[in-house]
Fold each of these.
Amino acid sequence: MIVTRGLTKRYGPLLVVDQVDLDVREGDRYGFLGPNGSGKTTVVRMLLGLVYATSGDITVLGQPVPKQVGKVLPSIGSLVEGPSAYGHLSGRANLALMDAAGKSGARRTRRSRIAATLDRVGLGGIDNRPVKRYSLGMRQRLGLAAALLRTPKLLILDEPTNGLDPQGIREIRDLLIELNAAGTTVFLSSHQLSEVEQLCTRVGIVDRGRLVRQDDLETLRALTGRSIVRTPDADRARELLDGQIELAQAGRLVIADADTAALNSRLVAHGVRVTGIEAERRSLEDVVLSVTGSGSDRVDVQDGDRP
C-alpha cells in the first residue's frame, strides 16, 4: 500500500527526513511513531504529494508519487496537520463542498452520505453553527469525516485524536478498527505511545528523521522471560520464591521465571492465592526508548552556566 525507498527531505542545510524505507502492507493498522519534530508530518505530506522529496522513491497504491498522485488520491482519505475547512460555513456545508469537489458519489445521495459519515464520527447531531465556533475536538471529528467521505482504501492520518477527550479517543480508535476490518488500510502518525499500542498491528519508529525500527507490534513487544503474578499473599510468595522476585509492589510480583503454568502450580500447591498470572512482555515505551535518542525537549543547565 505504501513503499518508500531512501526517502529524504532537506530544507536548505536542514535534514528533516533521512533515508526512510517504509513498508505498509494491505490490511495494516500501521503506527508511525515518534516525538514531535521527528519528521513524521513531512513524510505524510510527501506521501500525499503535498511536498516533494529531495531524493528517494514513493509508491502508494501501486503508483509512483508525486508523478501519478492524481490516480490514487480518490482512493485515499487523509487528515494532515489538523482539518481544513471554511470557518464561516457549517460542517455539513463544508462536507458538501468537499464531496462535490472530490466527486465522491452521486449528487442525489450527497445529503444522506454526509449524514451517515457525521454519525460515524460522532457529529450526527451537529447544528448549523459555523466551523469557526467548533471546539478542537469537533474540528478533528469533522476532518475525519472528510477523510471518510470517499470510502477510502487507504487512510493516512496525522495525529487524528488531537484535542479529543478520552471517550472521544476510544470512539475514534474503535471506528478505525471497524474500518480496517472492513478492508481499509490505516496509516496513523502519532507521538502517543498508548494510542499506537492499543490500535496498531505494525509500527515504524522514527527518530530525528530516521526510521530506526519497523516491525509487527507483537514482535516488538517480545517476551521478557519473566512472569507477573498478582496475589494477596505476597509475603508467603516471597518466602517460597526467595531470589526469583525482581520487583514486588502492592501485591504485584515480577518473577524471573517464564513458565507461568509451572509457577502457578507451585504457588497454589503451597497455599499462595493467585489472582492473576501472565508472561511479561516489553512495553512499546521500552522499545521506543531502546532505539531512539533522548527525544526530550528538556534544556538543562550546563556546568559553568549557572548564575
Note: Residues 166-181 form the longest helix (16 residues).
Amino acid sequence: MKQLVILGAGTAGTMMANHLSHELKKADWKISIIDEREEHHYQPGYLFLPFDIYTPEDIIKSIDEFIPKQANLIKGKIDRVVPAENKVKMADGRELNYDILIVATGAKIAPEETEGMKGTEWHKSVFDFYTFEGSLALRNKLRNWEGGKLVVHITEMPIKCPVAPLEFAFLADSFFKHKHMRDKVEITYVTPLSGAFTKPKATEALEHLLEEKHIKIESDFAIEHVDNEKKEIVDYGGRSIPFDILVTVPTNKGDEVMERSGMGDDLNYVPTHKATLQSKEYANVFVLGDASNIPASKAGSVAHFEAEILTENILRYIKGEPLKEEFDGHANCFIETGNGKALLIDFNYTHEPVEGSFPFPGIGPLKLLKESRMNHMGKLAFRWIYWNVLLKGTHIPFVSATMSESGKKYN
C-alpha cells in the first residue's frame, strides 16, 4: 500500500485529508496526517475575541472531530523531513515513509525577531492577536482599559491575513465608540508599506475609511526595536511612536520543521510552484496554505481554493499525468470595518480588488469594495461555513477556486 502523508492538521491539512480520503477511498493508498496539537482553532476568530464578540468556545474544537475516518491521525511532534529518503522523522523516534508528502505546516508569529518586542511588557501593554493566548490577554486588558494611545502595528510582510490589522483598527474604533470612550483613545495604524494595503485600489478605499474614522496612519515604518521602558516603537531611521497599548503583528515565519529539514527559505516558507502547488525541489512534495512561499495572500480562503486545485493535481500526479497550472492566487476576504459593516475584496495574482458583485454577476447579493451590513453578515456566517463545510472539504456553491471576472468593474 502506498503512503500519502500530510504534515499539519490545521485548515489546509484538514481540508486536504477530507478531499483525498474521498477521492482515494477505493485506491491502494493510506493517508496519514500528523499534528502535535489536540485542538483545532478557528484563527479568524482571534480578531473578534479581544472585543468580546466571540468567546473561546466559539473558536476552539477538537482536532479529532474533523479528520476523516479513512485517514490515520498521528499525534506527535515532527522532528524533520528527509526528502532524499522520502521519510518523516518524529521527535519520539518514530519514522514514516511516504510516496507523496503534503506540507501544510502553516505560519506562526516570531516576536523574538524584533528587539524588545517579547520583553517585559509582552502581554501586559504589548500584545499580538495572532495567537489564542495573545488575543485572550488583549481581551482582558481592553475590558478595563481607560484609554490612551492605541498603536496597531505590522512588523513586516508577508503576514497571515494581510487585512486583519486593518480590521482590528476598525473594530477598535467601533468598540470604543460603543463604550462611549472613543474620545479618550488615539488610534494609530503603523505599517511598513507605503499605504494601508498591498493593492492600490483597495488601499484607496481603506485609507478613506481610516481618515473617516480618525485613525492616523504612519506608513513606511520599518521597526528596529520596541522600547519597553519608554513605551514606544522605533524604526531604523530613528522615528519613534509612543503607545499605551501596542497591538503588533510580529514577523511571520513558516514552521521550524522546514528549517530543520532544509526545505525552507529564509523565513522557513517552502519554495513552491505558484500555479501547480508542487515543491520546486521535490516532485513528490506538494505545499499549500501558509507554508508555501507563493505570492498569494496567507488566508483561509486561499487555502480553500488551493485545496480544490491541489486535489486534482495529486490525482494527476498519481496517474502520471501532467499537472494543471491552474491556481491563480485567488483570494476572497471580508474586511470588518466596524459598526456592523464590512467590505469584501476578491483578487488574484494579476487582478487587484475591484468593484462589482459577488458571487453572482450583477446580482450579488454581496458588493465588492463597498461597505455593507450584508458583507458583515457574510463575515460572521463564515464561522459556521468553516466548521461545517470548508474543513470537511465540501465545495462552497457558486464560488470557484479560480477568480471569475464576471460582474466586476475594471478601469
Note: Residues 110 and 248 are 11 Å apart (CA to CA).
Amino acid sequence: MKQLVILGAGTAGTMMLNKLHDRLDPDEWALTIVDRDEHHFYQPGFLFIPFGIYEPEEVVRPKREFFPDGITALFDEVERVVPERNEVHLASDTVLPYDVLIVATGTAPCPEETPGLLGPLWYEDIFDFYTFEGAVQLAEKLETWEGGRLVINLAESVFKCPVAPLEFAFLADAFFEERGIRDRVDIHYVTPLSGAFTKPKATAFLSGLLDEKRITVVPDFYLESVDNERKVLVSYDGQEVPFDLLVSVPVNMGAEWVETSGMGDDDDLRFIPTDKHTLLARDYANIFVLGDATNLPTSKAGSVAHFEAEVLTENVLHYVAGEALTARFDGHANCFIETGHGKATLIDFNYDTEPLPGDFPLPVLGPMRLLKETHLNHLGKLAFKWVYWHVLLTGKEMPVSTALSMAGKKVDPKPIAEPA
C-alpha cells in the first residue's frame, strides 16, 4: 500500500484530503493527515469577533467533522521531515513513511519576533485579531474602550489575508461611529507598504476609502520595536508612532519544522520554495506545497488555497500515474473586503493581472461588483461562512473558475505603471 501524507488540517490540507480521497484508488493508496490541533477555525470570522458581528462559537468546529471515512488522522506535532528518506518524524516518536507528501502547515503570527510586542501591554493595550484568543480578547477591550489613538500596524508585508487589516480599519470606523464616539477615535493605518495595497488600481480605490473615513495612512514604516512604557512604535529608521490602543498584525512565519528540516526559503520566514505553477516543492520530486506554507508571489488567502487545491489535485494524480505535471496555477486570488456599514468591495486578480473594476463572476449580471462598495458584496462575504463549512472544506466543486477569468472586467487601455 502506497502512503500519501498531508501535513496540516487547516483549509488547504482538509480540502486536499477530501479531493484526493474521492480520486485515488483506496486499494492502492492510504491517506494520512497530521495536525497538532483538533479544532478547525474559520479564520475569516476572526475579523468579525471584535465588533460583535460573530460570536466566538460560530468560528470553531471539530476537525474530524470534515474528514472522510477510511483515512488516518493523527493529532501530533511535526518535528521534522527527512526528504532523503521519505519520512515525517512526529513529537510522539512516530515515523511516517510517505510516497507523496503534501505540505499545508500554513503560517502563523509570531509576535515574539518583534522586541516589545509581547511586553506587559500584550492583551492590555496591544492586541492581534489573527488568532482566536486575540480576537476574543480584543472584543472584550472594545466593549469598554472610550477612545484615543487606535493604531493598526503591519509588522511585515507578507502575512495571511492581506486585506484583513484594511477591513479592520473600515469596520472600526463604522463600529465607533455607531457607538457615537468616532470623533474621539483617531485611527492610523501604519504599514511597510508604500500605500494601502500592493496593486495600483486597488491601492487607489482603497486609499480613497481610507481618506473618506478619516483614517490616516503612515506608509513605508518598518517596525523595529514597541516601547511599552511610552506606548510608541519605533521603526528601523527612527520614526515613532504613538498609540493608545495597538492592533498588531505581527510577523508571519511558516511552521518551525520547516526550518528544522532545512526546507525553508532564504529569508528565514520558513516558507517552502515552490514552483508557482505546478505547486511542486522546488527541491523535492515527491513533495507538493499549497496554501500559506508556500513562498509563491501571491496572497496568502483562503481563496488562493482553494484555487491551488483544484490544480494540485490534478497534478498529484498526474504524478502518481507517472505523467507530466500539466495543471497550472496562475496565482488566482479573490477577496471580499468589508468596508463598514453593511457594505463591501471585491477584488479578483492573479500573477499577471491586477484587480480591475467590473462585474463578477458574470458580465453585467454580476451579481458582485469589483472595486465598488455594495451591500450585495457584504452579503456575499457573510454567506461565505456557510459555503466554507459545507462546500469548500468538503472538497465539493465551487461555481468560480480556478483560473482568472477576464469576463466582466473593465480593462484600461493604458497600462498603469507599477510604483518604483
Note: Residues 415-420 have pLDDT under 50 and may be disordered.
